[in-house]
Task: structure prediction
Amino acid sequence: MRTVIGVDLGGTNILSAVVNEQGEILGKDKRPTLAKLGATKVMLRIADSVHAASKESGLPWSSHLAVGIGSPGPLDQNTGIVIYTPNLNWHNVSIVEILRKNLHKPIFLENDANAATLGESWVGAGKDEKVVFCVTLGTGVGGGLVIDGKIYHGATGVSNHLGHVIVDPDGPKSSYGNKGILEQYASALGIVRLAKEIGLKPPTGQKTTPKTFKEMALDGNVKAKKVFETAGRMLGIGLTSAIHLLNPSVIIFSGGVSHAGNILFKPMYKEINARCFKTHLKGLKFRMAKLGDNMGAVGAARLAWQALNSSKK
Result:
């Protein structure tokens, strides 16, 4: 059997999956990244995870033709270098070269948000759609764009940063220096910031997280509801720009903040409907990601399959 192995490298976990040409997962391994150990030891953990996924699949090592990696960036797909990633504290790490020496397989690298979008467009919520835009609402706000089954990178490989779209020119300054970017409102950090700004505190003994504030909002807490109304409205403003620029056929949501559901999405839809051209909304679908935690690894596997098939031409 012909397979590849997709790896989703995150600041918290490494997830590796053996994937066939139909997008089916045949074996999987998940383990903590332990980023504090440093790049060299994390590389060894990635290699160990890949071998563990292979073993779990029951297939011989020779059946795995290549390995695809989805990593936080920015990165250079052509040179195989992770230029910088704050949640791993990596600077100019030659991930492809190092893993190739460890695994003795062709290695292909991609931004994690792009890889996740590719997975959803292949066998997930974006299957058979022409233009797939995936929005990740996690610690930050990420975006990925797949057109006709291929990742869109932009001129220099740094496109799709939805979280840096300005939604309020006079808004708070981010750690990156810009003011009023979407990430300051619709991310996990943004929601906590909004809550602190209006004096909202979690119940005694509970953590200061979007999940806590979501539960408070669902219980009728007025301040908590206001937080998600603001986050949803700003998300709608940011997506209006994306919709007008990209004309996607589907927008897919993933990440922990997206689990807030209607308390976030209702004000988002209201804003989009008020601001978007009706021509751009016609036929546009909004969906939740289908692949869950597997989307990055499946997308990285798809990347490997595409690279292998392209090399045959």
About this structure: The mean pLDDT is 95. The chain has ten helices and 13 strands. The domain at 3-117+293-311 is CATH 3.30.420.40 (Nucleotidyltransferase; domain 5). The radius of gyration is 20 Å.
